[in-house]
Specification:
The protein is α+β, with helices and mostly antiparallel strands. Helix content is 17%, strand content 29%. The chain has twelve helices and 30 strands. The strands form seven sheets. A six-stranded mixed sheet has the order 17-13-19-24-21-22, with no helix packed on it. Strands 1-10-8-4-2 form a five-stranded mixed sheet, with no helix packed on it. A five-stranded mixed sheet has the order 3-7-12-11-9, with no helix packed on it. α9 crosses α10. The radius of gyration is 25 Å and the shape is globular.
Length: 545
């Protein structure tokens, strides 16, 4: 059981942007009068008029309101005491990973829905039109129109009144006062709630303390973790030439996601890192919406100076390495960027990270520096579902040590592997490398060059079929990328970026990078086994099957 101890009151201390953690200000989180109880229910506002439901259809923007934030950057609080927000529901095709088009359901026409920022004491006036029956551009492949609703965890209202489901074409309006500070989830509450959340109907509401936060920061971002449960469309429909994916009900009920992501997309903040500068103080509003699994949120290279569980500064911890968040739980984490570099955000449940729960805070790293902990962002994507899945598996499990058309790393570039070996050889190698090393001359040559044998990864026939499909697609569609020479620490010319280190003399072993072990893959490429020196270590811990 996790016991949360409220921190004692600390005297106010002046804080400056980018100050060291010890210099950050600390004041009573509630902003209430000294000696008073900021959570006195007698002083809270529970008076709300009944919700109204009408057949008036809104046809304007799907999201509106000065307190909404559509992306990870969270803008400063709107000082108005009344926050009017609109979040209409839509059904649309979203891309949750390169080449993976998913039939999603949204608030505000995006997944996750916009971040709502208010403060304690604000009156929130909410309106939503169910627009799930509106046609979308292109072929109609989204789910059929259906009932939807809105459930704000930040509100204290009668659910049967405010959170009632409305039919397509109907509009609901209700209001409430934000009484508690925190990082709260909002989501569709229409049965089956599990499927509605798994389809994309969720978002974050930040409720600031009445007197503001007790620290000053330079950057504020929102990170929303969620799970997707997908399968290829049984009707084999396509969107823009890409196969359509739909919700896999069996996976949802068994808590076996195909993707676990930040801000609605696989590697979304690797493709578009969050920006910061050395010495700056960063505040992240973090929410795990689930719908079913936990998150162990971590930022590589720094320590959380302050963690406010559920986003309430009265629930404070200091000097934390990770924050454990159950489904629908949030937190505020603050830390200082110690020096120039790329700081990787990751779910330290590495099985989740391997499915896309990873991002980067880019803080002035030198050009060309490849953060070992992250998955290289994808560019082109195949259309065959098997190849799409293998591509994502490859990028999350193998890129610490080798690439396809990106240059040699700890092992050679895999580009052209299907031209060097036939399907039967590759299948045998992936299925049972230890047997191949005993009898096959080519496999023995690979071991002689790379020194460490590839372990049996327990790949299924379907896994092997998928990898072969991806390798063939890559050989037909990708071109090798030239690597530029770089200078080593001593000033002498270093191997080109991504190239393998010099081969060891006969009878010796090439030392692995940090704590990884290089293991040969087909064509001489390597995967990572064991070690926790970086995301390559994750490939060994969570990637190999």
């Amino acid at each position: 059981m996790l016991l949360l101890a409220c921190r004692p009151s600390e005297p106010p201390v002046a804080a400056t942007a980018g100050a060291a953690p010890a210099a950050a200000a600390a004041v009573p989180a509630s902003g209430g009068a000294a000696g008073g109880d900021p959570y006195d229910a007698a002083k809270m506002d529970f008076k709300t008029p009944p919700a109204t439901v009408s057949s008036e259809r809104h046809s304007g923007p799907f999201a509106a309101g000065s307190s909404l934030n559509p992306g990870p950057l969270v803008k400063p609080l709107d000082p108005a005491p009344v926050k009017e927000i609109r979040l209409d529901t839509t059904h649309k095709i979203i891309e949750i990973a390169p080449g993976v088009k998913f039939s999603g359901w949204t608030f505000g026409d995006q997944v996750p829905g916009p971040v709502v920022r208010v403060r304690v004491g604000d009156r929130v006036k909410f309106t939503m039109t169910n627009r799930s029956d509106e046609p979308v551009p292109g072929v109609r492949v989204t789910a059929a129109p259906m009932m939807h609703s809105m459930d704000f965890h930040s509100a204290m209202v009668a659910p049967n009144d405010k959170y009632r489901s409305i039919a397509p074409g109907q509009t609901i309006s209700f209001e409430f006062t934000a009484n508690y500070p925190g990082v709260f989830m909002y989501h569709c509450g229409t049965p089956m709630v599990l499927e509605h959340i798994a389809s994309g109907m969720y978002g974050m509401m930040v409720v600031e303390p009445r007197g503001g936060y007790p620290t000053k920061v330079d950057r504020e971002y929102a990170v929303v973790q969620s799970e997707f449960y997908t399968k290829p469309d049984p009707e084999k429909r396509k969107v823009d030439g890409q196969p359509l994916y739909v919700l896999d009900g069996a996976r949802v009920r068994s808590k076996a996601p195909t993707y676990t992501v930040f801000n609605g997309r696989y590697n979304s903040m690797v493709e578009k890192p969050l920006e910061a500068k050395p010495g700056e103080r960063v505040r992240l509003f973090v929410m795990n919406v689930g719908p079913s699994n936990t998150s162990s949120f971590h930022v590589v290279g720094t320590i959380f100076d302050r963690v406010w569980i559920d986003g309430n500064p009265d629930n404070q911890f200091r000097g934390m390495q990770t924050v454990l968040l159950g489904s629908s739980q949030g937190a505020v984490v603050e830390f200082v960027i110690p020096e120039a570099g790329n700081y990787v955000m990751v779910d330290h449940h590495f099985a989740n990270a391997s499915q896309g729960a990873i991002g980067i805070i880019a803080a002035g790293a030198p050009p060309g520096g490849d953060p070992e902990h992250h998955n290289i962002p994808a560019t082109a994507a195949p259309t065959d579902p098997l190849a799409v899945q293998a591509k994502l598996d490859f990028e999350s499990k193998c890129l610490a040590c080798h690439t396809i058309a990106g240059g040699d790393k700890l092992g050679p570039d895999l580009h052209g592997v299907t031209k060097r070996h036939d399907d039967a050889w590759l299948a045998r190698w992936l299925k049972s490398p230890e047997q191949m090393l005993q009898t096959d001359a080519t496999a023995k040559a690979l071991l002689d060059k790379w020194k460490i044998p590839m372990p049996n990864q327990g790949l299924s026939d379907q896994d092997i079929k998928a990898y072969l499909a991806y390798f063939k697609w890559a050989d037909q569609n990708l071109q090798p990328r030239a690597a530029a020479p770089a200078q080593g620490a001593s000033g002498a010319a270093a191997p080109p970026a991504g190239m393998a280190p010099p081969t060891a003399a006969p009878g010796t072993t090439v030392p692995p990078s940090r704590t990884q072990s290089a293991t040969p893959m087909p064509g001489g490429a390597t995967g990572a086994t064991g070690g926790m020196g970086g995301m390559g270590g994750m490939g060994g811990m969570a990637g190999h099957k």
